[in-house]
Write a sequence for this structure.
């Protein structure tokens, strides 16, 4: 009973030295998580090169079937049976890519380009969002198998494991496709069309779990809250905060102010110890859901920084060689700064997803900024120089075959926009939430009917591949039919 009467500050005073921040382990695991993400990213690089010629000569379905093993298979293998070979795989792909650069002379050819067109919807945003969806979908089922590499599981208090990236990267992807509200109409649209549906999904999930009697780990988001609530409330609060900014750049000091205030509350105000105290009774809504509620300021900071990163990327999309190099340098330096901040915070305050502290926020900004830099350099700077995409070639070939002769201008325009590369990534971007919900539904089915905990390594990999094939093929078909739900 005494513990119920403790204030957050009292709890901090009595337990502040109780928790091990696991600084060195967190730093190592933080970089390991980036390496695992790079295995799927490497698959996307291979798929882009492999389907360059195919996209204008064969059906999109065949391109999808080529992309699937190149992109999804590494993601499945390197979180399960082949986890110890992640570095070897990424290293081999990196060496092969360096060979491509040398053989094709792409660096000198890039210097002679008249411009670099990032596009109104840059490839970098498409790939970063798809990576988050793919890795999360794989892990939410893979963790139920014995073959899943246990160190990748979510941390209980402090740590930087692969699955700790899930909610943080989802907030990043939400910010990357958002913009600050400029008037009340924009704000109302953001709240009603984005925040409210996520909150309603949170209520639906909580209600469904209550009905079927399926428990959830209350140390993750609390007794009643879940990831949808975190995303919805982050969108709600983030929209309100970003409305205060009068320019995109003002989002940066606003985010830093939120983060510093949040970290002061965690470290000085005793909120961190309050959240992590297992002995504290969950006898009120706040205490029962302290993990989900008291981590929100950190997620709002991630959201605001992600909006700024996105707006900075698209502020000018038609770049000269000098402008492209300058953008790559700035982005590279920013990524290094974030990683340095992550290392410093790991030693000073730790990295904690459950409180979304400064260490976690810096880690969540470091990973996507690194992936954006890699995507810009590899796809927009190198591959687009030596293997440029020209959708007009595909249109011309289809016209020669007569497949578009009787088509309307709208159909031709759709064919031009569809292309034949990044099919899985584009599909996930068009219906990301649908894919995530479908993955959760299939995960539930596997757990109910297939008893994943008793499956062999080989069987688990097969089940994971079939599961991912079903989920990705559904959204691929929706993409081809131009059906967008969410």
């Amino acid at each position: 009973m005494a513990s119920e009467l403790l204030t957050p500050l009292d709890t901090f005073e009595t337990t502040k030295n109780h928790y091990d921040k696991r600084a060195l382990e967190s730093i190592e695991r933080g970089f390991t998580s980036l390496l695992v993400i790079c295995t799927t990213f490497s698959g996307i690089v291979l798929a882009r090169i492999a389907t360059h010629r195919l996209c204008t000569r064969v059906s999109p379905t065949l391109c999808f079937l080529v992309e699937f093993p190149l992109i999804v298979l590494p993601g499945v293998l390197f979180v399960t049976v082949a986890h110890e070979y992640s570095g070897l795989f990424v290293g081999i792909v990196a060496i092969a890519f360096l060979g491509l650069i040398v053989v094709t002379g792409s660096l000198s050819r890039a210097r002679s380009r008249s411009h670099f067109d990032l596009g109104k919807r840059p490839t970098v945003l498409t790939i970063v969002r798809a990576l988050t969806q793919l890795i999360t979908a794989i892990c939410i089922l893979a963790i139920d198998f014995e073959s899943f590499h246990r160190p990748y599981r979510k941390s209980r208090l402090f740590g930087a494991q692969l699955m700790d990236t899930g909610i943080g990267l989802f907030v990043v992807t939400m910010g990357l496709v958002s913009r600050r509200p400029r008037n009340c109409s924009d704000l109302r649209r953001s709240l009603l069309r984005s925040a409210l549906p996520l909150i309603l999904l949170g209520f639906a999930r909580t209600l469904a779990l209550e009905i079927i009697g399926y428990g959830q780990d209350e140390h993750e988001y609390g007794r009643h809250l879940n990831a949808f609530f975190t995303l919805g409330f982050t969108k709600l609060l983030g929209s309100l905060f970003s409305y205060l900014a009068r320019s995109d750049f003002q989002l940066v000091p606003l985010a830093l102010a939120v983060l510093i205030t949040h970290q002061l509350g965690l470290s000085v105000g005793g909120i961190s110890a309050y959240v992590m105290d297992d002995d504290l009774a969950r006898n009120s809504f706040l205490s029962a859901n302290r993990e989900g509620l008291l981590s929100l300021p950190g997620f709002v900071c991630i959201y605001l920084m992600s909006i700024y990163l996105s707006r900075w990327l698209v502020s000018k999309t038609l770049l000269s060689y000098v402008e492209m190099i300058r953008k790559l340098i700035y982005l590279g330096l920013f990524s290094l700064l974030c990683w340095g901040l992550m290392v410093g915070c790991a030693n000073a305050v730790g990295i904690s997803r459950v409180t979304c502290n400064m260490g976690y926020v810096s880690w969540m900004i470091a990973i996507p900024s690194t992936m954006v830099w890699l995507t810009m350099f590899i796809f927009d700077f190198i591959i687009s120089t030596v293997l440029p995409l020209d959708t007009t070639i595909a249109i011309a070939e289809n016209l020669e075959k007569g497949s578009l002769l009787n088509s309307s201008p709208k159909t031709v325009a759709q064919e031009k926009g569809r292309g034949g590369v990044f099919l899985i990534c584009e599909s996930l971007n068009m219906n990301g939430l649908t894919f995530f919900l479908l993955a959760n539904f299939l995960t539930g089915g596997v757990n109910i009917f297939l008893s994943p905990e008793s499956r062999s390594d080989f069987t688990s990999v097969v089940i994971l591949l079939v599961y991912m094939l079903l989920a990705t093929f559904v959204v691929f078909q929706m993409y081809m039919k131009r059906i967008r739900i969410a």
Notes: The first helix runs from residue 8 to 15. The first strand starts at residue 116 and ends at 117. The chain has a mean pLDDT of 88. The two ends are 46 Å apart (CA to CA).
